[in-house]
Amino acid sequence: MTKINVHELGYVRLVNVMGSDLTIVNAARVSYEKESFNLNENDISLLKFLAREGHTSPFRHALAQFEIYAPLMVARQWWKYIVGSAHMEATGDSMDAWNESSRRYVTEEPTFYIPKNNEWRSKPLNSKQGSGDYLGIEIGDKYSKELEKLIELGVSAYEAALADGVCAEQARLFLPSYGMYIRWYWTASLQSISHFIVQRSKKDAQKEIRDYATAIIELIKPHFPASLEELIK
């Protein structure tokens, strides 16, 4: 499996993988000029030790590349992990990579995330962020329709501006942004991926990004079953 659909329009696609559990084991064992050729119980014990004691550098020798299609509100939460979990070199370059489609150049028909009438959530009782229980169908139906009308208005103005010769990088100002789907490539080490999974699988994480974290787990776990299990415990 290399692709998982998320919501109705979004998806996560596993593009490429470099390494395996054995890659991580051998990155650690090189300190003693040793190498394993088949993963065994001693290697599993080593992976447990590395994860438990926070010896993270061996996990950065394994990489995965994903293509992701998600609403902008999800992408901007996700982007914080490129900044926050970056292991900065002396040059200031991050070991993770992110390349995103841009409506400065792309004028394909925009698509938007619109919650269904049973997906609107209340504000939480004891927090300034996050969400509470699901609201009723009646109020959900109201705001699904309101959002649809807002999107239609914005897209109409966007298309009119393009037709009048306005450049794409300015015409995009008319598009409602937070629910608009964008596409990007994310390449990250297994350590960064596991950190994202741990943080965005929690119950207090926004549901929409939790759904994407679940897809990441399902795609990456077959390639690093032992390592990932220890990292996300």
From TrEMBL:
Molecular function (Gene Ontology), one example: thymidylate synthase (FAD) activity
InterPro entries linked to this entry: Thymidylate_synthase_ThyX, Thymidylate_synthase_ThyX_sf
EC number: 2.1.1.148
A single GO BP: dTMP biosynthetic process
Alphabetized UniProt keyword annotations: Methyltransferase, Transferase
Protein known as: FAD-dependent thymidylate synthase
Organism this protein belongs to: Fontibacillus solani
Broadest EC class assigned to this enzyme: transferase
Pfam families: Thy1 (PF02511)
Lineage top rank: taxon: Bacteria
